[in-house]
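<given_protein>
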Amino acid sequence: MQDYKANSSGSFRTGTHRVKANRKKQQKKPLNVRKILHRSLWVGVLGFTSCLVVFGLGLLLQVLQSSDLFRVDQVRIVGGSQLSQAEILALSDIQNGVSTFALDLELIGRKIEENSWVSRARVERIFPRQVNIVVSERVPAAIINLGYLYYLDQAGEVFKVLGRGDSFDYPVVTGFVRDELLQDPLLGREQLQRVVALIDDLKQRRSFNLNQVSEIHQEENGGLTLFTLTGGVKVKLGEGGLAEKLNRLERIYAELKPRLEALDYIDLNVDKRIIVGIEPRLGSAAS
């Protein structure tokens, strides 16, 4: 075992050999006061400039808000047939002469959308003194009986109780229960959209079309039944393949139409056949 001893010069001896100390001398650099002051000056100038910009913008905003140049003197309304422009303007609560910068456009849109007829309202500024309101209204597809009569729109949404002055010139949808629609809104929406799709299909047909239908009824098993305007005859469609079933009916409807008063039902649920039920006193027939 060798003996390591340090000498006066800071190195180590082992036998006759020297081992250099494992230390590195660090030289202290003098502080660059000028550079530090220069950097501090720039930070101070930048901070002061930022404060001036913020203050200036705030002052400019106050000037613009109080300026007569940006006071609303025109509200332009686009869309709206069920609601008059005066009604939409009243819903917006935009006062003539208010500063355009003081208007909360999203809040105004939501206030207009609180009306049952409005599906969407977009509000935008047109500088310097105009506001545009673009309104999209719901379009009724049918009237649905849920204890009270409601409008059903093209998207399958129940949106308004019928009141005085509302049109009743739509097919009536029955068989739905309000509480059930609320308990399972997704299923209810799907079923109502199927009814709307059937209405759209009937609109496109020639011989047996929507003008021949007075009521669309959903049965307890989910199947659909139509009632004809003439004679109130049941047209049993069931659940699936509605378009194909209506195609089958249209091929013979010209022959059936003069005899509707004597018919009890028309059943389209049997594949490739049409079952026609005659009033009990007249017997029954099939074709």
Q: What stands out?
A: The mean pLDDT is 85. The helical segments are 33-66, 85-92, 105-113, 178-183, 185-204, 242-256. Residues 140-204 form one domain. The chain is about 30% helix and 25% strand.
